[in-house]
Structure formats: C-alpha cells, structure tokens
Amino acid sequence: QKLILKMTTVSLNRDEKHHQIHRECITYDGILIGDRVYSEVYLTISNSLIPEERLQPTPSMLDGLDLHTETDLRILGCELIQSAGILLRLPQVAMATGQVLFHRFFYSKSFVKHSFEIVAMACVNLASKIEEAPRRFRDVINVFHHLKQSHRGKRSASSLILDQNYINTKNQVIKAERRILKELGFCVHVKHPHKIIVMYLQVLECEKNQTLVQTAWNYMNDSLRTNVFVRFQAETIACACIYLAARALQMPLPSRPHWYLLFGATEEEIKDICITTLKLYTRKKPDYDHLEKEVEKRKMSLQEAKLKAKGLNPDGTPALSNLGGFSPGSKPCSPNVVKVEDKSPNPQALKPVKKEPDSRAQGSKSPHNGLRKEAKIGRNSRSRSGSRSRTRSRSRSPRRQ
C-alpha cells in the first residue's frame, strides 16, 4: 500500500508539472499540440467591436473607393437584407444579425474585390441559421433577384430561371458564407439591444408608453444601416435610442444626474450615436446602377495596375518599354536572303539577288536525275565486274595449256 501511495503521488506530481507546463505554453506561446505550438482564438463578445484605428482607412478605401460610395454600399446592402428578411418572413433578430455581419465583414474585406450582393445573400442565409430560422438557398436567391429588379424600376419582374447562372450564383453564395465565417473567426454572435430597451424603460417606469417603446425600436432598427453596432456596446446603443425617442416625443427624463449614467453610458458616446443615426435621414437614396458602375471602374483600374506592375498591357500582351524592344522588325534576317544596303537614292538600283539552286537537293528530289545516277552506277559496276572476269580468265588460261 505504501508503494502504491508513493507511485500515485509521483504520478500526480508529474501530471501537475505537465499541466503547469501546458498552461505556460497556453498563456505565453499558445497551445502545444504534439511538437507544434498553435495560437489561440478567443471567441468573446468584446472581440466583435472594431477598434478606432481600423475604422479608417477601410480596405475599400485602400483600393481607391471613396468614403461616400462605401457608405452608400453599406446602406444599400443593409436595405437589401432588411427587405429580403421581410419577404422571407424572418424574425427581426435574424435581419439585425445579418446586417451586423455584413458590416463586420466589409471592415476586413473590400467592396471592390467582393460583390456586396453575394455577401448580402450569404449574410441572410447565415443569420437565418444562427437565429434558428433557416431558409433555402433557392428562396434567398429568388428574393434578391426580385429586389434587384424592383430597385432598377422594372414594372414587369421576370421570374428566376434555374439555369447555369443560378447554379453559379448558388455556389458563390456558399463560398461567401464560408469566407464570412473565416474572416470573423466563427465569432458570429450578436448582442441585440431589443430586450435591453424594454428593460431600461422598466427601470425608468416608462414601459407602459407603447409609443416611446416603438419609437426607440424604430431608431434602433434604422441604426443597423450604420456602423454603430460594430463600434459601441449594445447597452450604449439602447440608451441612445431611448434618448432619441424621448427627444422626438418631447418626453422629459431624469437629468440630475442624467439617467444614462446609471447604465454605464457617457454623453459623448450617446451624442456620437445620435448624430450618426440622424445623418442617415439626410442622405439620398443610393442608386443601384451607379454604385455598380463605380465599383466596376475601381475593379478595372486595379486590374490594369496589376498588369502594369507585371509589365503587361490591359489585354495581356507584353508591354514595350522602348522602341528597340520586342518588335517584328528586330528579328535577324534569314540566311537565304542577302541584305542590300540602301545607299543609292535610285530605287531601281536595288535588285533582288537570286540564290543558286542547290544541285544536291534538287537531284535528290527529281526522279529523272535519280534514274540517270542509278543508270551510271549500274554501268560502272558492270564494267568493273567485266574487267575482273577477263583478268581471271587470262590468268587461268596458261594453266589449262
């Protein structure tokens, strides 16, 4: 029994040392799996907020897209997600999740390199799965096809044809959904302030005022088109929506001290959220075709810059650095052509020089010459054989005598 106790204590000490070393590897270098050390991935709600230094310049701005066009693309994408969610009869929470994922993705990727329409479809499909209200790919693509036609002002909307274009679009949406998960590190949870608004109004004893509750919810749903949800916590956004609703309805709220200080919000954050949301109502409605043309221009300019860096023309042919470079005229002349210098001004002085035919080559090709050669060779061989036979006969003749 003593030996067993000693062995167990030794094994426990070894396990503790192993766990201690493993913890040190986790805290400083990462996770040790076998002989390799892997870094950690922290999936927390605080990681969903984007720091201020990453807000500008965005990847789209680095690709040459101006801030106004990028903001219009964000608003248009969120409007498509909201309208598609209504047609698909998704809950508001799913539509809000899709819009937040849309904003998060395009703070790590560019609008020039990724189609905002395909990404919006992928966000709707992914959000419907997250909020446990999944929809089919065919329904999502069909709804976006209808919305695209309505945005372009077509009265007679055509139905979606299930051809090769539909299959390609479906595959693009599937790839975009995987890309979103990869870029966000599978941290797709979104904390929504819907319930927080009701809870705060209960604390303020204003929950019975349905107009105030509905107005605060409307402001919150409209702020989903902005970048508010990737910059501030859900509690701060709820306070800002209540503040806007109370100001719009001219309802007094406690101000000594200010009521939002109770919930951890500051005056600067509430002002920033309110100004960003109110600016949304002063903007013009984004033009679908104009935004697509702007993105296509930037895409073409990026492709031309890449080809120019590789030394190629826009059509893929090699670019000429100078006049003496690659040219058909710079090829060396063939040995069959004699080069004549152009020294005399008289053009008649330049006469083409004919090359003498190769007798060997012509003789081997023409059958007539070949027969003559064969005939000559035959005669020579006969004469030689005849002379040999005569000499042999002369040498043998005296022996017979």
TrEMBL record:
Residues 79-182, 195-279 form the Cyclin-like domain. One of its GO terms (cellular component) is nuclear speck. One of its GO terms (molecular function) is cyclin-dependent protein serine/threonine kinase regulator activity. One of its GO terms (biological process) is regulation of transcription by RNA polymerase II. The keyword Ribosomal protein does not apply. Residues 308-401 are annotated as: Disordered. It is found in: Nucleus speckle; Nucleus, Nucleoplasm. Residues 379-401 have a biased composition (Basic residues). SUPFAM superfamilies: Cyclin-like. It comes from the Eukaryota. InterPro entries: Cyclin-like_dom, Cyclin-like_sf, Cyclin/Ssn8, Cyclin_C-dom, Cyclin_N. Keywords: Cyclin, Nucleus, Repeat, Transcription, Transcription regulation. The keyword NADP does not apply. Residues 191-306 form the Cyclin C-terminal domain. Belongs to the cyclin family. Cyclin L subfamily. This is Cyclin-L1. It comes from Oncorhynchus tshawytscha.
